[in-house]
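input
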Amino acid sequence: MNVIQIDFWQLVMMTGALIGALFAAAWALITIIVKQFTDQLDQRFKGQEDLRTEREAALDKRFKALEHAIKSEGDGWRTVERELLELKAALPIQYLRREDAIRQEVVIHSKLDALAAKIDALRVGG
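output
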């Protein structure tokens, strides 16, 4: 049987080298895992940034459409206001007020009553 003899310092050095190699392997493994994790985070953040940009573009488009609708609605209200002012200006010219109509009717009735009285006077006298 062959027995391998190793000095204490050789055993310490080999153990140290083995522990160092294990630490180096663990460090390399941790570095790889952290690198993959950060790459996944970068991809996720990039995807979220792209989605945010798309949402922002969609919202800008909707806001511009709303601004256009509000502006056209404002133009429509200006048109309605102008037509209402024209109607207010035309009403006194085209229509007769109630008090004026009553006054005219009273005048016509009084003239008819006077005419009826003259006709009755002619009939009685003639």
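quick obs: The mean pLDDT is 90.
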